[in-house]
Amino acid sequence: MASTEDKAANKENVSSWKDSIYNPRTGELLGRTASSWALILLFYLVFYCFLAGMFTLTMWVMLLTLDDYVPRYRDRVPHPGLVIRPNSLDIFYNKSDPVKYAEHVQNLESFLQRYNDTEQEKNEDCRQGEYFEQDNTEEMTKKVCRFKRGSLSLCSGLSDTSFGYSEGKPCVLLKMNRIIGLKPRGDPYINCTVKKDTPVQMQYFPSEGRIDKMYFPYYGKKAHENYVQPLVAVKLLLTKEEYNKVLSVECRVEGSDLRNNDERDKFLGRVTFRIKVVE
Ligand SMILES: *[C@@H]1O[C@H](CO)[C@@H](O)[C@H](O)[C@H]1NC(C)=O
Ligand SMILES: *[C@@H]1O[C@H](CO)[C@@H](O)[C@H](O)[C@H]1NC(C)=O
Ligand SMILES: *[C@@H]1O[C@H](CO)[C@@H](O)[C@H](O)[C@H]1NC(C)=O
């Protein structure tokens, strides 16, 4: 008796389980009628179309307000890194072997093409010691302050085409990375030191390694197309005692509010490179 009752109950269970997927009596699928499902699908379709529409509209409005000439959403101006030319942090060469330093000399020469005095004549002769601000000009393209390679004197590659490499007194050029809107306070200059007991003599061009304020601010790639970064050249006046030794030279931007001692970023406002000259 009990067993037939069980079987009946079992049958009931199975059919109600099947019914929960598809109930042929009511035509319900997963507990909903076809029209109910259609309504749900329709609701989601409309809902997602609406979301996509909203997204497209906001994007479109935002893109309309963007201007190629004016960078937007700058909450703070980052600090610039310092880089050197020749483009190598290990400048090791044999001063008696021009093939060994030709690469560095070519690197400097091609880098300085943009600073050709004839090219730079076209740019503005700006007032020294003052920012060259052009926020209120009608012009979309900003003017550029001239920086002639001639001002690098012995490191210009004009009087000495080997940039001092052949005489064992090599020049290294330093520049700060371009940062839009950067206006360094104070009077920035480059100071290089060699980690060594006896100091190594150096010459700076322009004098005292000064970076003039007139080259700031920079207005961006498009607005300030022909902008040239100010350069500082350092000529290491090495003597025979300093040959055949790896010298570690550290250069920093000093005299301004630019950071040069960030623990995590070794290139922020400073750079360390190695030099070794052999005969
Ligand atoms: C440097 O080059 C000169 C000339 O090629 C050569 O005589 C000299 O041995 C080289 N010095 C070193 C340390 O390789
Ligand atoms: C820059 O000047 C040098 C030497 O005066 C010359 O050889 C070179 O062709 C010039 N380059 C440009 C781009 O004017
Ligand atoms: C350059 O840096 C060295 C080492 O930090 C320092 O002793 C020297 O006074 C600095 N020179 C100038 C002109 O700031």
User: What's the average pLDDT?
Assistant: 89
Beta-strand percentage range: 15-25%
Q: Could you tell me how far the N terminus lies from the C terminus, measured between alpha carbons in angstroms?
A: 113 Å
Bound molecules: 2-acetamido-2-deoxy-beta-D-glucopyranose
- The 3D shape can be described as elongated
Largest sheet: 4 strands, antiparallel
Uncertain parts? none
Organism: Channa argus (Northern snakehead)
Family: Belongs to the X(+)/potassium ATPases subunit beta family.
Protein name: Sodium/potassium-transporting ATPase subunit beta
InterPro entries: Na/K_ATPase_sub_beta (IPR000402), Na/K_ATPase_sub_beta_sf (IPR038702)
What does this 3D model show about the protein?
This protein is of the alpha+beta class and 279 residues long. Helices cover 25% and strands 20% of the residues. It has helices at residues 2-21, 34-65, 98-111, 117-120; strands at residues 22-23, 28-29, 82-85, 90-94, 171-176, 186-194, 202-205, 232-236, 247-256, 270-278. Strands 3-5-8-7 form a four-stranded antiparallel β-sheet. Strands 4-10-9-6 form a four-stranded mixed β-sheet, with helices on one face. A hairpin with a 4-residue loop joins strand 1 and strand 2 (28-29). The longest helix is centred in the N-terminal third of the chain and has 32 residues, at 34-65. It is elongated and about 105 Å long. Residues 191, 193, 254 line the site of one 2-acetamido-2-deoxy-beta-D-glucopyranose.
